[in-house]
Amino acid sequence: MGEENIAVYALLTGIRLANRMTATAKWQYYPKQFWSFHRKTKKSRLATLREQHGDDCWYCGNPMRFGGIANTRKSATIEHLQPLSKGGTSAMENLALCHRSCNGHLKDFDRAHKEKMQAGMRARI
Q1: If you average pLDDT over every residue of the chain, what do you get?
Q2: Ranges of the chain whose pLDDT falls below 50
Q3: Which backbone phi and psi does 42 adopt, to 5 degrees?
Q4: Which fold has domain 54-125?
Q5: Where in the chain is the domain with CATH 1.10.30?
Q6: Beta-carbon-side half-sphere exposure of residue 100 (alpha carbons within 13 Å)
Q7: CA 48 to CA 75: how far, in whole Å?
Q8: Contacts of 108 (CB under 8 A, 6+ apart)
Q9: pLDDT tens-place string over residues 96-123
Q10: If DSSP codes are grouped into helix, strand and coil, which group holds residue 87?
Q11: Residue 21 DSSP one-character state
Q12: Which residues of 63-101 are buried (b: 16+ CB within 10 A; e: fewer)?
């Protein structure tokens, strides 16, 4: 990245930088490296949850899709049983595998409400 590009970037983002960006600053302001790390972490968590809980959705109990197009209704996502917005953590005991569409239905309800919803959904099947 040229010096003029750094100056424009600093001006646009409101960040005052010295003549050179440090390695920390580059990592902080170039999110590609962060998303690459985040993607690897998510894949490893997905594999661990799949080994622990199997291939079925936590909410509806139907099988999930693990290959193919990523953002379809039946693709696998990670659901926080106790939402982060309500004091939950990303610990493995708080995570479950859900379809993308089921994850949307569960929203940010607390764990007890989600378990009631799950019981109701399983009773219908």
Answers
A1: 81
A2: 15-19
A3: -65, -40
A4: DNA Binding (I), subunit A (1.10.30)
A5: 54-125
A6: 10
A7: 16
A8: 83, 85, 86
A9: 999 999 999 999 999 999 999 999 998 8
A10: coil
A11: -
A12: ebeeeeeeeeebbbbebbbbbeeeebeeeeeebbbbbbe
